[in-house]
Specification:
477 residues; Ubiquitin-like (UB roll); alpha+beta; 16 helices; six-stranded mixed β-sheet; seven-stranded mixed β-sheet; Creatine Kinase, Chain A, domain 2; 2 domains; 17 strands; single chain
Amino acid sequence: MTETERPAAGGPRPLTADDRERLGARAAERAAELAADGVVAVALTWVDVGGIARTKAVPVQRLEHAAAWGVGMSPVFDTYLLDDSMVAREHVGGPVGDLRLHPDVDRIVPLAALPGWALAPADRYAQDGSVHPLDARAVLRREVARLASQGWSARAAFEVEWVVSDGDGPGFTPACNGPAYGMTRITELAEYLRELLKAFAASGVAVEQIHPEYAAGQYEVSVAAEDPVGAADTTVLVRETIRAVSLDHGLVASFSPKVEADSVGNGGHVHLSLWRDDPAEGPVNAMSGGNGPYGMSAAGEAFAAGILVRLPALLAVGAPTVASYLRLVPSHWAGAFACWGLENREAALRFVTGAQGERARAANLEIKPFDAAANPYLALAAVLAAGRYGIGSEFLLPDPVEVDPASLSPLERIERGIDPLPSSLEEAVAAFASDPVLTEALGEAVVDTVRSVRHGEIDLLEDATPEQIAEATRWRH
């Protein structure tokens, strides 16, 4: 089922007999194309509440049946913790039950980094064809549809940061030794980075830039913005491509928020812009060309303000691990304070105008505190819900912050209304669980499961030192 076949206001709907026939026919065509390109198996992937990509795979000859009728999988994986233990909840958890993974046929991508394999983001349905309440792709589609019903669309992209290790075992050995952002790191791993770029291009990923980052052995890749569901699909594809190319070069990649306790972590910053269609002008970016702060339109400002005011609760899906709060500290460009500013990399919400002359296209918001342990579908769904509520409530932004908030005295921060974001996962979950907007948007099943999985990880790592937390999380994302 394509996006255009889904109801505009309600998001995904239950599968009908006609849907199954159409999906099967489309999958049969795609299977023939994939087989002709040497693909022998398709990995049906989805991301669990803990941010880990899970999968079941089918031979390419089985794709038609999988698209029409799904592939069985236990719902319990939504309650898995980072060590693959589980928590049982009212909605999911335990050995009983089944759901069906249906590949999104139009998003199947041959994996250039894994010859013979293709990746298909999976939609999850119950056996009767109803949408599974914990299907994060469906939750995001629903929020996209709600935004569209008000005349708006969003464009999004995730920055992907990762480190590469040149060693076996649980420890981390940086695979390059050059300085932060230094050309030396390109030279040291030139062949690896070249193969990465070739694999991205062959998989249809539009890379905008790739560069060494701050931490030891760390790199970052930025990709082009697209529709929110596509952006989430792409970030899964990017990470699995990085993982495969790394292994092919004898390296191991980690996307963990905190690979080493005494170093900076891996972010998963979200770039987001709000758009409307103008009959005369075509697509118009609400983050530019207006009379609001730095050229935002009234709707763009309200959208940004809606996200800003809900950042403490949003962290439960955007910075979802205990390790996330080892990363989320002041003066580390992680955005540890709930404030916004023009090109301020210490503000949780950075406003990016782009260069003079391309601002109508480029202006966007960057959400700094999020990291790569997040389920990208849930993170974007929650952010869109917060922004949509901001538009409906005509929120206004507070004054921008032009300095590192940590450089201000506590009294100055209080006077300017600059609050620290939660310093622990427990604080973030408390804010999330009591937030009525996110509860309504995500649904009871999602909110209950997120809360339970987060508390499960808190209990799991209750007595752990920062070093032990980093080690437990290092190779899970």
